């Protein structure tokens, strides 16, 4: 009997997850705009921001008598700039894309779909998990597509300086960051029951999150109070881990070249360059190494998981006059 119940739950989960995925896929405009979010930012960076990022590097090189006339050095600098920005966009996408996928959940609330679920033998816990699972699958696939596009872009420019280990690490960070991003956005959207409200949240949140996690600019360039706020945003640590995976091999290779050009000042030059990129995450005056960044992300993930368990019912709440009956159980007065 236990095995039969378990199989039934798995069938429910599979059917519901498939339904959510089909709702997403069948809306061509939703698919288009979800895919376009990272690529639009990518295009803006290439045409408008790439050369501006270079302006932060020139003074450091000039201080030590180096210039961009050195083609090899110029190649390494552009590699760092591109890797820095692209890794930030990937980290941001694990949050912004997931946020948009929550439209499915909010629409189910507003359009009364949850009433149908409530009057069916569907387990509420299974329904809640199906929303999480569908969100994770879509977000991960979209981010993976963009990540592959980043690799192709870097490879075309000859800037793909990554070992196989770094690529595997990056995929691991992507899975971990996507789980965290989904838990983060689903918790926020569980309190929303109107599409109009959801649209406003997406607009405001998508604009701000890139700055709050340091995707667009190094955190040290922001006011000190804002830096402290950023330290409590889970995506900040996802972004930092992506940058270590994206930039680590390129920095090592560039360090060897700079030292061969200027042995006396090579290490100092690279230290200043990495600081100007905000490569090292600073939290209340302490440098947070990758190991502690991963630990912070784990702790945030556990916290978000607990919050979602406590407030998960809000995700599938029935809006309107039929709210007294939820998944076959009458609420007690």
Q: What does it look like?
A:
The protein is mostly helical. Helices cover 74% and strands 3% of the residues. Helix 4 runs parallel beside helix 8 and helix 8 packs antiparallel against helix 11.
Mean pLDDT: 85
- Can you write the helix and strand succession as a string? HHHHHHHHHHHHEEHEE
- State the helicity in percent bands: over 70%
Number of strand elements: 4
Q: Major sheet: order of its strands?
A: 1-2
Q: pLDDT below 50 for ≥5 consecutive residues: which ranges?
A: 321-333
Characteristics of this structure?
13 helices; 333 residues; two-stranded antiparallel ribbon; mainly alpha; 74% helix; elongated; disordered C terminus
Summed up, what is this model?
The protein is mainly alpha-helical and 333 residues long. It is built from 13 helices and four strands. α4 (71-101) runs antiparallel to α9.
Helices and strands in order:
Elements: H1 2-26, H2 28-54, H3 58-63, H4 71-101, H5 103-110, H6 113-118, H7 124-156, H8 164-189, H9 195-212, H10 224-230, H11 234-261, H12 266-276, E1 281-283, E2 286-288, H13 290-311, E3 325-326, E4 329-330
Antiparallel strand pairs: 1-2, 3-4
Helix pairs in contact: 1-7, 2-4, 4-7, 4-8, 4-9, 4-11, 7-8, 8-11, 8-13, 11-12, 11-13
